[in-house]
Amino acid sequence: MIRAENVWKSFKGKVVNEGVSFEVYEGEIVAFLGPNGGGKTTLMRQVYGELRSDRGEISVDGLSPYHALEFVGVVPQDVRPIDGLKASEHVYVNALIRGIPRDRAWARARELIRKLDVEDKAVDKLSVGNKRKVLIASALVNDPRYLVLDEPTTGLDPKSRRELWDLLIGLKEKGRGILLTTHYLEEAEYLADRIYFLNRKVLLSGKTWELRSKLSLKYEVVNIRTGERYKVERSELPQFLYRCDFDYEVRVRSLEDVYREVVGNGS
Ligand SMILES: Nc1ncnc2c1ncn2[C@@H]1O[C@H](COP(=O)(O)OP(=O)(O)OP(=O)(O)O)[C@@H](O)[C@H]1O
Ligand SMILES: [Mg+2]
C-alpha cells in the first residue's frame, strides 16, 4: 500500500501540505480533489519521490518512494512526451528503461498504443489528448503495482476519457492501486473508491458511496426567483415545502455541493 503519514511541505515558508495523511491499497482507486494551488501536485511529487517531505513519512509497500520507483507508474501533471519519437517508440523507450527485453517491449508498446487508440505518429504532431495518452501508455508499460496520475484526463475528449476510466477500472480489478487527482467531480464519483478533498490540509475524506449516501439524505431547496438556497434534511422536507411561500425547485445534493461546501466558493 501507499501510506502517507502527517506529511508537511513548504515552499519558502509557505505551507502547501499541512499534516496530510492518506493511504491507497492495492485494488482501489483513490482520488484527490481540490482547488488550483491546493497542494495536490506537490503531494503527488512527494509520493513518486521527486520532492522530499519536510516532515512526516511516505512509504510504498514499506519502501521509501525513491526505492519504490520500479513498481510505481507515474504521469506528472505538466510533463510533455519526448519530441522526435513516434507514439509507439515513446512507449517502447520507456519499456527499455524499465528493463523489458526488446521484443517484449515492442509488443507491449504496440498493444498499449492500440488499446488507448492513439495515432502512431510523431508525438509533437499529436493533439494534447493523444500526447497525454502516450504518457499514460508509457507509465503502464511494465504493468506497475501502483499508478500515480496527476490530472490524467485533463484535455481528453469525452470518449477518450471514458476509455481511460474503463482502462483504470480494469487495472484496479486486476489488483493495482491507483492514486489520481482530478478537477472533475463526476470522474471522482465514477472512478474512486475513496475521495480526499485537499486544500493544504485534508478537509474531508471518505468512501465515495458514504459521502454520496450522507448527501442524499439532504436536499437543497432553491428559491427560483431569488436563487436563495436552503439545505433541508429529508425528514424535514415535507414540512419545509408546506411552509414555503415562494416558487421552488428541489435538488438532491451532489458531490459538487459538498465540494463547494468544504472547499469554498472561491475555487
Ligand atoms: N517549486 C515550487 N516553488 C514554490 N512554490 C511552489 C512550487 N511548486 C508549487 N508551489 C506552490 O505550492 C502551491 C500548491 O501548488 P500545487 O501545484 O501543488 O497545487 P495543485 O493542487 O496541484 O493545483 P492545480 O489544481 O492547479 O494543479 C501553490 O501555491 C504553488 O504556487
Ligand atoms: Mg496540480
Automatic annotation (TrEMBL):
SMART domains: AAA. The keyword Nucleotide-binding applies. Coiled coil: none annotated. Gene3D superfamilies: P-loop containing nucleotide triphosphate hydrolases. Residues 2-225 form the ABC transporter domain. Keywords: ATP-binding, Nucleotide-binding, Transport. One of its GO terms (molecular function) is ATP binding. InterPro entries: AAA+_ATPase, ABC_transporter-like_ATP-bd, ABC_transporter-like_CS, ABC_transporter_ATP-binding, P-loop_NTPase. Pfam families: ABC_tran. Signal peptide: none annotated. Belongs to the ABC transporter superfamily. This is MarR family transcriptional regulator. It comes from Sulfodiicoccus acidiphilus. The lineage of its organism: Archaea, Thermoproteota, Thermoprotei, Sulfolobales, Sulfolobaceae.
